[in-house]
Structure formats: C-alpha cells, structure tokens
Amino acid sequence: MDRIFNDRSFSQTEQTKIKFKQRARDLDALDRAAIDVMRCLSELEKAESDVDSLERSLSTTGSTKTPNDVQREMQEKDKEV
C-alpha cells in the first residue's frame, strides 16, 4: 500500500483517505468473517442439541438403533436446516 505513495503524486490528505478506505474495507471483511463464525457456532450448538435429544430418546425408549441409524437421522435433521 505504501509503495503507491512513493511518487508523491498524492497529497498527505489523499494518502490518509486512501489508507482509511483500505482499513474500512479490512474491517468490513473482518465483520463478515465474525458473522460467519457466529453462524457456524450457532449451527454447531443446534447440532449438539439434536445429538443430545436423540441420545436421550434412545436411552428412554431402550431402542436398539445402531450408530448408523443415528447418523442417518442426524443427516436428515441437517437437511431440514
């Protein structure tokens, strides 16, 4: 970024504005990344809750479901989301 200012064709004010705009873009990108992380965390918590619910259901019913059966149910739940 600083190398574009070497020819002194930009005033100090223009250089500051350019740097400010670049930092604003960087902050926007970080903001979007943080939103994605929060969304993923929320989805993870939902999946963990679904697993807990299925485990409770299995233990209370005395079900003989296999881990593959549970995995299939989890995949079906994921499709719903």
Beta-strand percentage? Answer: under 5%
Instruction: Tell me the number of strands.
Output: 0
| Count of helical regions | 2
Give the terminus-to-terminus CA distance. Answer: 42 Å
Q: What does the radius of gyration come to?
A: 26 Å
Q: Major sheet: size, sense and barrel closure?
A: none
Class from helix and strand fractions: mainly alpha
Uncertain segments are none
Order of helices and strands: HH
Total of domains: 1
Portion in helices: over 70%
Fill in the keyword field for this structure.
81 residues, mainly alpha, 0% strand
3D architecture notes:
This protein has one domain (2-80). By secondary structure, the chain is mostly helical. The model has no long low-confidence stretch (mean pLDDT 84). Helix content is 79%, strand content 0%. The radius of gyration is 26 Å and the shape is rod-shaped.
Task: Describe the structure concisely.
The chain has 81 residues and is mainly alpha-helical.
